[in-house]
Amino acid sequence: MAATTPHRIGRDDVVWSFGPDMEPVLEVEPGSIVTLETNDCFTGQIQTEADLVTEIDFERVNSATGPIAVRGAEPGDSLIVELLQVRPVERGFATLIPGIGQLIDKVQAPLTQVFRVEGETVHMNDRISFPLRPMVGVIGVATDGETLFNGFAGRHGGNLDNHLHGPGAKIYLPVRQPGGMLAIGDMHASMGDGEVCFTGVEIAGEVTLRVDLLKGKQGTWPVTELADRWVVHGTAGPDFMEALDRAVEEGARFLVEQWGFSIEEAFIFLSVACDANICQACRPQEFSTIARVSIPKISATPRPFS
Amino acid sequence: MAATTPHRIGRDDVVWSFGPDMEPVLEVEPGSIVTLETNDCFTGQIQTEADLVTEIDFERVNSATGPIAVRGAEPGDSLIVELLQVRPVERGFATLIPGIGQLIDKVQAPLTQVFRVEGETVHMNDRISFPLRPMVGVIGVATDGETLFNGFAGRHGGNLDNHLHGPGAKIYLPVRQPGGMLAIGDMHASMGDGEVCFTGVEIAGEVTLRVDLLKGKQGTWPVTELADRWVVHGTAGPDFMEALDRAVEEGARFLVEQWGFSIEEAFIFLSVACDANICQACRPQEFSTIARVSIPKISATPRPFS
Lengths: 306, 306
Fold this sequence. Notes:
The structure is a homodimer of 306-residue chains.
Chain A: E1 6-9, E2 14-15, E3 17-18, E4 26-28, E5 33-38, E6 64-70, E7 78-88, E8 91-96, E9 111-118, E10 121-123, E11 129-131, E12 135-140, E13 148-149, E14 153-154, E15 157-159, E16 170-174, E17 180-188, E18 205-214, E19 223-225, E20 229-236, H1 240-257, H2 263-273, E21 275-280, E22 289-296
Parallel strand pairs in A: 1-5, 4-6
Antiparallel strand pairs in A: 2-6, 3-13, 5-18, 6-17, 7-16, 7-18, 8-9, 9-10, 10-11, 12-15, 12-17, 14-15, 16-19, 19-20, 20-22, 21-22
Helix pairs in contact in A: 1-2
């Protein structure tokens, strides 16, 4: 049955930007399961601690594997991407990049740090290990006009850098072009909220997902469903507070339009029961800042797009 | 035995600011258990939805019950405050305040919303209920010089508005004056990160805590211990990003000074494994902005102040 045939895309089928005109490398039925190989964000240009970020080709960063066209997806719909598995390889990298990040003036840079993934643990060195928290930084669809390099986030998704985009997350992506044109990359074995040195544990890997289609409903930005909450996003340029404003407005829009809150109820509920937080606020921020607002699943918020 | 005698302070013994010269209403031995009654942030001036925030006396907001002197506490030490119980009363309030909050231009204000607490649930109205998440917004000690109204946060604590300051949290407060002079107030039955309309579910209640003393060690700001992480803080004026910078610097200071990380290891670890987030970023922000950074408990971060 077409809807359940497993599909696979290799890590050479990538895009470097999201725009309005994207050619699919795979076309699938709603309900299909796809496994994607993803490159690390440096596309293999960093292999050891002797390889420095100042020496790489920045035209070849943040590749996203795809795009996948979903049959029947039309502007106004959502692609529902359920991340079934996010499996990093054994070795990842973080870098300190001259001029970038909250503490950059206090450190030696450039610098490359190698990490080793073993089971559920990420080893930084003999002394420092921490839990694996795999996620994808870049997930998006074709835009309605602009073309954005994968370093940027926007209404199409892109470099959302939301650490909650790991196994079990269900991401509703707003379709702006026929087929949607899903692409995914920039896996991290772990990334902290804020990503204050501008890298997580950057790593290649495989993502297995189920893609489905919701007709005639979408968010302004991608909306993420977890077991206990809905997560809306807002993106902006260098000013994180503008991203936060947008995410709060998007949360209010959902509460009012999807769940029947008055705008006053929405504002109060956002303040007393929802968590406004940071996905990406590294600075100086030359790409995007990204905020999220988590709305708890309660009886009044049964599902969005209702 | 003095160290385990239960003590009690009523809700009339309050302070409205933290400064260098504070007179204790209670003096206890390290190890003592104390129960404090706390006022809601409006000090009872709002009782029904007909009572509007524009009509109250703003000299009487954010009272903190105390201060408590801890015998033997000297500048350079930390008071360790373990929140054993945070018990709100049955009725709380949120308000929409003209000119304040991300969505204020879209709503009718002033407006008062009453909430009813029943067991583990907070009821907003017939349609909207959400989980109880009790915490204290104001917790602090005497300062080393400045006097700050309880609406502000600073290195002494004060209005930190960290929703993680609920039952089970252990807060290490930096002692700057003999006795420490602990005071606590501004309970919320629930408050979202960001507190975007500037109120949580503001409510009176009782706090039961154990206070202990750590000699000769302290953070720049209060440091909070949870079961799975250490939480450091940074506070600033209206610019939240400055608060975030300070919290990241405080996280690095702990990683380097307490746990032996190099500054490069600290910067990378903060980016890949620690979550930089928002306590308070309501705007326009006339009081303080507050950021936190959560550092996971791993073998390399066994306890601070080691």
